[in-house]
Every structure is written in C-alpha cells, then in structure tokens.
Amino acid sequence: MEGLGGQELLRRAGPSPKGLIRCAKPLGCSRCSVRKAAGVQQIPRANGLYRSRVLGRGQNVQCSLSQRSVADQPAPTKRVPRSAIRLAVPSKGRMAEDTIQLLKDCQLNVYKPNPRQYIASISQMPGLEVWFQRASDVVRKLMYGDVDLGIVGYDMFREIADSDPGLIILHDSLDFGKCHLGLGIPTGGKWADIRSLDDLKAMPEWSETNPLRVVTGYHNVARKFFTEKGFEHVVLLSADGALEAAPLMGTADIILDLVSTGVTLRENNLKEIEGGRIMNSQGVLVGNAAALRESPQLLAVVHELIERLEAHLKADQFYSVVANMRGTSPEDVATKILSCEALRGLQGPTISPVYSWNPSSSSNGAGAAAAERGFYAATICVPKARLYTSVKDLRAIGGSGVLVQPMTYIFDEEPERWQKVLSTLGL
C-alpha cells in the first residue's frame, strides 16, 4: 500500500507480521511527510531505500524516496533460446475477448484446444505462438524479451513500460478497448466548486502534513502527471478494485482510473474536471525492438499482421454502395458523382453500363440498349457515418436502386504504419 498517512497508515500496517508497507514520497518534497506526520524515525540503507521505525508502535515502514519506476527494475539476465515467434495477448476480461475477435476478423483464428492452457496457435501463421498473459505481464514479458509481440491497452503499456526505449508501438489504433485515464472528484461538500485541475491544485487544504490522497493503479503515470502539473503535496495510494468507493469511505480524496462511459463515476457521486483527462487509451500492438532488428522472420510476421489489421480496420469504416445512375455516358455519371465530395470514395467511382433486356433494341446489341436507357452502375465506398446522407446525395443526382454491402478488407499499397516501423528500427 503506497502513501497511507497518519494513524491510518499505522492501522493498515498492524495486521502484517512484519508490519511492512510501502509509502510514496510527496512530489516535490525532500522528505516523506507521511513519516513526519506519523512520527517515524528514518534509517537510510545503501540501496536508496529507508527502513523506518514508527515511534512507540514497534512497526516497520519501508519508504522509497528514489521513486524507482517499474521500468527501472532489472530484467532477467538468462533467456531461454527459442525459434518460435511469440505473441502475448490478455488472458481475461473484455480486452482478451476483443483481441481474439479482432484476430478472427483478420482471418487469424486462435486455436486453443484446452481452455486451461496458456499457449495457442494460429493455423494461418505457422511458427507463431500465442501466449495468454495478464495485461501487465504482456508488457513485462516484452521488456524481458520472453515474447516478441504483444497486444495490450495503451494505458497499461504507458504504466508498465514507462517510456522503455526497447519497445516499439507497431500499431497504435486497434479500435477496441477505447477509454481514457482521468481523475474522479467528489461532487459534494468542499468539492462542489472544483471544476478544473487548477481549482484542485489551488485548494488550501494540501500541505506537507496533509497531502492530496490519490488512489490509483497507475502510479508511474500518476507520478509524472502530477509532477508536470506542478502539484507539490500528493500521496499515491493503491487498491485492487472498487476505486470509486474510496473517497466516500475516506480512504482517499480523489481517484485516478480508467473511464469508459462515466456512468460508474456518476453513480458513485464522482465527476470529471477540466484538465483531468490524462490520456486516451485503446488496444495497441507492441514489439520488442531488439528482436525485430535481429529476426527477418519476425519482421515478416509483423508485416503480415499490419497488412491484415490495416485492411480490416480500414474496411470496417466503409460500406460498398452500388447505385443505378442516369447519364449520357460513363464520363457524365462520373462527373456528377465527383462533384459531390461525400461520394468520391477512396479514389473515385467505378462506372459500368447496365445491361437490361429490351426486345426492341436487341438487334442493336445490349450496349446500345444500355445507352438508350441511359443507365450506368456506379460503385463507391461510403463512410458508415455518412451512409444515409450519401444515399440522398445519390438520389439527387439521378441515382436509384441503391445497394449497400459491408466491406471485409481494403488492401492498399504498403501500409504507412509498416513504413514507419522500418524507419523507427533504422531498416
């Protein structure tokens, strides 16, 4: 438990046989105000940590004044040689379900014969192993080199990797798990008039002996955020769940957590404030940079993954629309369509004559019959959000018989993200 203050700190430490807990240094302060308030004698150690004794209670408290982040922890020095390429994915929850569904939508079917197993395969990509891990361990295993690729939320990547230069984001927008990391502030009492981050920082309550207590599971992100925003007296607390209840219980003043719709915040009498949104998050594909530079086989797998992901995610934004258009020629129909910006599609419409049976014109051929009737078929790509507007625009320029079909893939030229990966790796 990090950063518990005063008598509450002593009470929480009581049940432990060793009485050891962990406390965060207030940001911007030269010593730990929690220990000062609780009456703690600090005894420095050679490793940069302080072993402290709470006066009169016989409890030991361990406080890290160096504020080492997760990314600073040394990686294992011994690595097991292997030939298979490994992709780590979340093992539980909505992120796990969405990850497997995304791969399936890209025609990459994850086969796991036993639900208790932590390893699976993808028949379309032989030689690629899929490892199911906790979301936080996906990032850690990437840092250690135990896996080569990983799919995880951007929030977890930022918290665990902490700007680790050994990792590279290969795809930053997998279009699932969308949410944001933000502050949750109580709505009533002294908080009623707090509407912005500046209001929060200006509250006179915060001092060295009474710091702002923030409960969160994102300590690295929170520490950087409050430091950059100029907060001087902040203590970060830990909790495994139900963070929204902490302010009402008196355990913390505010929370810092993931927000999706905001319903849970509102139902627990919490609100968001201006400037309190820390980052947006969604699923990302991450790779180990050293492994990518050393393995041509891994690069080939990444190239295929990016191609499949880009083709599916791009197609998922559009409908394929086919309409019968009146016009004197294909050029005439194309001009009408291109005059409307919303109908231009990816590169423009595909125009072809409509061949219909007309006995009176059979001697002249089907092409002549199509020209006489003045109908041509136009195929365009339309953004899903503008479907009905596009149908009305087509009707306005002579369109009828409009057909709408979902799109599965759009394979363009080399994806821009692939070129960016090569540039980042210096290849």
Automatic annotation (TrEMBL):
Positions of the ATP phosphoribosyltransferase catalytic domain: 134-310
Q: Where is the Histidine biosynthesis HisG C-terminal domain?
A: 317-408
InterPro entries in the cross-refs:
ATP_PRibTrfase_cat, ATP_PRibTrfase_CS, ATP_PRibTrfase_HisG, HisG_C, N-reg_PII-like_a/b, N-reg_PII/ATP_PRibTrfase_C
Give the top-level enzyme category.
transferase
Keyword set, alphabetical order: Amino-acid biosynthesis, Glycosyltransferase, Histidine biosynthesis, Transferase
The protein's annotated pathway: Amino-acid biosynthesis; L-histidine biosynthesis; L-histidine from 5-phospho-alpha-D-ribose 1-diphosphate: step 1/9
Q: What is its EC number?
A: 2.4.2.17
Pfam families from the xrefs? HisG (PF01634), HisG_C (PF08029)
Q: Which reaction does it catalyse?
A: 1-(5-phospho-beta-D-ribosyl)-ATP + diphosphate = 5-phospho-alpha-D-ribose 1-diphosphate + ATP
Report the SUPFAM superfamilies cross-referenced here.
GlnB-like (SSF54913), Periplasmic binding protein-like II (SSF53850)
Looking up PANTHER family in the UniProt record yields:
ATP PHOSPHORIBOSYLTRANSFERASE, ATP PHOSPHORIBOSYLTRANSFERASE ATP-PRTASE
Query: Which protein, by its recorded name, is this?
Result: ATP phosphoribosyltransferase
Species of origin:
Coccomyxa viridis
